[in-house]
Amino acid sequence: MIETPRRTSEGGISTPVRAVVVLALLYLFLTGVELLGGGFKYLGKDLVDGLFEGVSNPLGGFFVGLLATILVQSSSVSTSVIVGLVASGVVGVDEAVPMVMGANVGTTVTAVLVSLAHMRRAQEFRRAFAAATVHDFFNILAVAVFLPFEIATGFLSRTATWITDQVIGSSGASFKSPLKEAVKMPAGWVRDLLEKLGAHGDVMGGLLIGIGVAFIFVALAFITRNMRLLVADRVEVAINRALGAGSGMVAILIGMVITISVQSSSITTSVLVPLAASGVLTLENIYPVTLGANVGTTVTALLASLATGSPAAVTVAIVHTLFNLSGIAVFYPVRALRNVPIRLARGLADLVMDRRSMAVAYTVGMFVVVPLLGVLILR
Amino acid sequence: MVMSFFRKPEEGGLKHIDAQVQGMINDARHTFDLAMNALTGGPVATVADEVRRTDRRINITEMEIRRELVVHASVHGGVDTPEVLVFMHMVKDLERIGDYNKNIFDLADEGVSLAEAPDLGRLLGYRDELSSRIALMGELLTTRDEDGARAYITRGDELRREFDDRINELVHSTEPAVVAVPRALLYRFLKRVTAHSLNVVSAVVMPVDRLDYFDEDDETRA
Question: Which of A319, B37, B134, B166 could bridge across to B187 with cysteines, CB 3.0–4.6 Å?
């Protein structure tokens, strides 16, 4: 048998060392969230109001969340930033909820791009594109149902606030967070360094925000890369088991567990696309795993919120989880509703199979034109 | 099932596929033995279900391995591409061995019996040798013994020539069709079993792009 170099020690890093690296990166991520939230406190009120004037409009907030996620290619990054904004008081919970919904939609761009790689073979592309866009359609349908409902009733934010009250209490504007205490020191070092370099006011705020976002982005990128290596074998076994599971609930849970492990729903859904393209997985197999991935990815924002010490930030993170769980509650148990995103995805895939340029047009339209126009018009 | 994610994974990935390939080889040897025994005086009707069941298991295992290879490639990316391609190629050959074994059994099932044949001794010799060679195939894949693989391929070439000679003799013989045709078919099936086993073992000594083309490469021989 041909022996190929094993990937488990990429760059000569052993598993225990890699696990320590992941913990260190997690620490860097939480420090980034702390810096981000702290940075906004330095900015002038007029500047902050100017930056975020569009998000008071729910649709504007939705498109901001959508565009931000597409730009950074990660809902974990964008929702962590949103959590930081809420923690700093720049954005309120009501304004953040539509942003979080937009982030949910934006994260599907990676799987769609992966599906375009199968464009040269028509049947394969049809399966791949359907597998990628079923995620889009679920998210869009969930927003279509829950955004108006949330605006009208505040159901998600009220429920999340109640949960926050039960878990950490809501006395005062903050709670004692051990994670926040843990990251105060390195965040303080960065602040002190910038002060020594002469930064203050808006400049200090801008630098802290930039460094915070950079820490979040870099940390998550390397966390997902390392976690993928650490858990790849388990993910492989889990997917093989899911193929034979037959139960949608098990598939949802497997999607959640895999995504929490690799800290990226994009990785989970992107792995599913070639499996669908080859015909190994059907759209009906993939759909529940995708739903689970949607829920699993909310863990990152929850973790970030716990580092802020802000009950409002925790509430927004819980809204993200509740939104996805509510979407599952509507679009999974009842077969007729479960089939809606599946049929829409198949219909679109049938359409683009013979006119591949439409697939590119859909991708550009959905993930570039519409969010840009939305942000520009509604600001 | 979900909680098993958090336990240390049992053999997964390519190690698991390796084990399944060994299972296919064991099944292939089993059906070969049953088929040849049926043709040379052993039970026929009582083993028919076992032969077909085992052949189905070989086919199902091939499909499972292919699916797991696609999952492996999707999860791990392109690092193990050569191994994935080799496994993909190998399971097809093993499945074909299973098919030819069933074809051999079908001769017996159709009423062909070589139990009283004058060349029974030679047939039993081929039966024993090929049965051992199927088992040796599994060992060579496990040990990656290149010298052993080359010797295996050399002897396999000799066997293929012998089977070709037997078939040509029958083509030109004056034996009645009821005698010549089953023998010609048998030697044809034995030649194909031999050839597919050589394809499998060629993975030990040949690069991916030249799998099966060992007959064009003197270095593959002992």
Answer: B166
